[in-house]
Design goal:
alpha/beta, 7-stranded parallel β-sheet, 6-stranded parallel β-sheet, 16 helices, Rossmann fold, 2 domains, globular
């Protein structure tokens, strides 16, 4: 058995982390095991499951204490004491040059830089991280991306391999009985349910989403908005909802382990991101036969069924609301599993290919 070290911020319930866990659940763990080097102290959403699956979690604290000298010493110490890793799979662009350099120094022969985004957040912090991220490939030996857009953004003319953000197709397939059950549990049986799943951060554009919902609510008095996730802007968004006098119509559901069921309860999924590497939630929503209205910056690779629609963020919130409210009377739900499988988003096939890659490069 070989052990792969994944380098991540932490294992919260975000898109990146959910993708890694989907691989982890579906690989042959008698041949390949995952461990994690995280950059925060504390316990996060997937930590218990990782340990149950046989993984180890190692903590550095640079994102807590901002002590960069301590971080560099910690990296050097970690790789000097963990010679069992011959493959490091890095998912943190801004710090990649540092952990890959330490890994190289201590003999890690395979260093995978994995791009998950197609832009950086339009904030001072985002721009600074973007500058650092440009050196992500410098000490890497292999380059992965979740889409062509993410690959070109991060790696330019370097050769990269697209590893699609695949999903468990059976888990997300539409079910009318599950829809009735979840809508009953949420108390939204007679509501027009608009949904969004994503971390509360600048990238996901929640304030614009609230503006869109405000306009939709004017057209459909029974509209409700379900927001699933956590993040640094959660309180800001809650305050904005209060300013708009919408607290009774916007439900904050935090992080959930049943998002596959929540999709089935929704009538339309809205995804107005400022940028995306791919947007795995758009694939999950489509597999649930759910109309998915995305900003036109979401990569074309996410457009795999008739349930995918795009709008420009240059359009006003009212135009988005008008499009969303077209689905208030329902629409035909058909099985799109084969379309999504043919497009390369079956987690079983994706995990098998990734496992094969790990085994082949480890054998060299």
């Amino acid at each position: 058995m070989i052990r792969i070290l994944h380098v991540v911020p932490n294992m919260q319930a975000g898109g990146l982390e959910t993708m890694i866990m989907s691989w982890y659940r579906n690989i042959d763990r008698s041949k390949v095991q995952f461990d994690f080097l995280v950059h925060y102290q504390g316990k996060y959403f997937y930590d218990d499951e990782i340990e149950q699956l046989g993984g180890k979690i190692y903590h550095l604290s640079v994102r807590d204490d901002n002590n960069f000298v301590k971080y560099l010493k910690g990296l050097d110490s970690f790789f000097s004491h963990h010679k069992e890793y011959k493959i490091v799979h890095g998912h943190m662009e801004s710090l990649g040059q540092f952990y890959f350099k330490a890994a190289k120094k201590h003999g890690v022969s395979v260093r995978i830089a994995h791009s998950h985004n197609s832009a950086t957040e339009p904030t001072l912090k985002g721009r600074m991280k973007g500058i650092l991220a440009k050196r992500f490939p410098v000490y890497a030996t292999h380059y992965f991306a979740c889409s062509d857009m993410a690959g070109k953004f991060m790696f330019g003319k370097r050769d990269y391999k697209v590893i699609k953000n695949a999903i468990d197709l059976e888990k997300f397939k539409y079910s009318e009985s599950v829809r009735r059950e979840v809508r009953r549990d949420l108390g939204v049986e007679n509501k027009f349910v608009i949904g969004h799943i994503g971390r509360f951060c600048t990238q996901k554009n929640h304030k614009f989403l609230i503006d869109v919902f405000e306009q939709a609510r004017k057209r459909k008095e029974n509209a409700v908005l379900l927001l699933v996730g956590k993040g640094e802007l959660l309180e800001n968004v809650k305050n904005y909802v209060n300013e708009k006098k919408l607290p009774d119509d916007v439900r904050f559901l935090s992080v959930r382990n049943d998002v596959n069921k929540l999709y089935k309860a929704m009538d339309v999924f809205v995804f107005p991101s400022l940028f995306e590497g791919l947007g795995i939630v758009a694939i999950e929503a489509q597999e649930s036969s759910l109309m998915t209205v995305c900003s036109d910056v979401v990569p074309e690779e996410a457009n795999v069924t008739q349930y995918f629609k795009t709008l420009s963020l240059n359009n006003p919130a009212s135009a988005w609301a008008e499009q969303i409210c077209k689905y208030d009377n329902g629409y035909e739900k058909v099985d799109v599993t084969e379309k999504i499988r043919d497009a390369g988003y079956d987690i079983k096939n994706s995990s098998s290919k990734l496992q094969q890659f790990y085994l082949e490069v480890a054998a060299k």
